[in-house]
Amino acid sequence: MREPGTSNRLKATFSFYPLPGNPAASGSYTMTGSYSPARVALYGSHWIHHPSGYILVNLIGKPPPPGGNRFSGSAVGCSTFSLKRS
Q1: Taking CA 13 as the corner, what is the angle to CA 8 and CA 17, rounded to the nearest 5 degrees?
Q2: What share of the chain is helix, strand, coil (3-state, %, to 5)?
Q3: Residue 41, SS3?
Q4: Phi/psi at 20 (nearest 5 deg)?
Q5: Which long-range contacts (CB under 8 A, 24 or more apart) does 66-71 make?
Q6: pLDDT digit string (tens) for the chain, length 86 residues
Q7: How many CB atoms lie within 10 A of CB 81?
Q8: What is residue 70's predicted lDDT score, i.e. its pLDDT?
Q9: Is 13 exposed, middle or buried (0-12, 13-18, 19+ CB in 10 A)?
Q10: Which has the least CB within 10 A, 48, 53, 72, 85?
């Protein structure tokens, strides 16, 4: 979500949970970042629910096309990601 009164600053909540075939823990944390036409960068800020053994992960990717609702890219220090706006 873009912060009111700013041109490129973002705030987000990142939540994760187990899926069939991936028995991960559940957790969530806040993120802050920035947006430009070429890049979206979101940085882990603080835990809301911190499962033991998990770390904050930063997300860097290309913004979705106009009208798009999927953001994908690199989970820094981890792997790749794909997020869908709900």
Answers
A1: 145
A2: 0, 55, 45
A3: strand
A4: -55, 130
A5: 71/40
A6: 544 555 689 999 998 888 888 788 899 999 999 988 889 999 999 999 999 999 999 999 988 888 888 888 998 877 888 887 76
A7: 15
A8: 86
A9: exposed
A10: 53
Show the CA angle centred on residue 14, arms to residues 8 and 16, nearest 5°.
160
pTM: 0.78
Q: Are residues 36 and 7 in contact, defined by beta-carbon separation less than 8 angstroms? A: no
CB atoms within 10 A of CB 61: 19
Q: What is the pLDDT of residue 3?
A: 46
Token readout for 60 is 């860097």
**Which pair of tokens denotes residue 43?**
């940085």
| 17 and 26 Cβ atoms separated by less than 8 Å | yes
Residue type, 68: G
